[in-house]
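To start, an entry.
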Amino acid sequence: MKKELSTEQKKSDTDLWIIAITTMLAYVAYGFTGKTLINFCNNSDVNVWSRLLAAAFMEFALAGLGITIVCIIRKESFISHGLRRENAIKAIIGALICFIPYILYIFLSGQFRGYEPLSIMVTEDLHKAGILTAILGTLVIAIVWGFFEGFNYAVISGIIDKRYPVKSKIFDWGALVCAIMGILFHPMSFDLLGIIELIATFIALYGMLIIRKHTDNSWGCVFAFIFIWNAL
């Protein structure tokens, strides 16, 4: 006999569909416009704010828009999804520990080219445009590429966890799906170094989200994406 879904699980089902459809539409749009967008953003003759906002809009559509729509529909604040003070330090330290294998991989494989948090393709031109532009532009980067990218994983993982709850302390469907999603949405190779990178990336993302679950705090995910994932 099929088990009846609870009201919370039915709501989570709807939320996941909203996020999935929104994200897929964004990926389709990027598939058609990605090359043009990248060329536009790399063109130093174009106003730097136009390039930054164009890239930020696409990035937010891919990682952030879906969960924002869900929060608006449900009248939920971001705080209710783990952005609270309680256990914040514990969540950040836990996420940092989970990323140690990934950090070691970057260094030992010779891929480290400098520590550059909040750096994207237009960052250099932002700095050339003056101190105010650099500060405001960096804030936009921190919000879109740092905050929303990390928070996106935290929220989706939490919703999946509500839809498919498990009692295990080390296994979680939300963490597993989001870790696999994070790996699949980035370039992969299957030589020895590529496999090591996949394992290190999985440990980082899965561990980060397990920490989020046990601390009920999403700041570890945000910290990891601002200061590690998008900085190395």
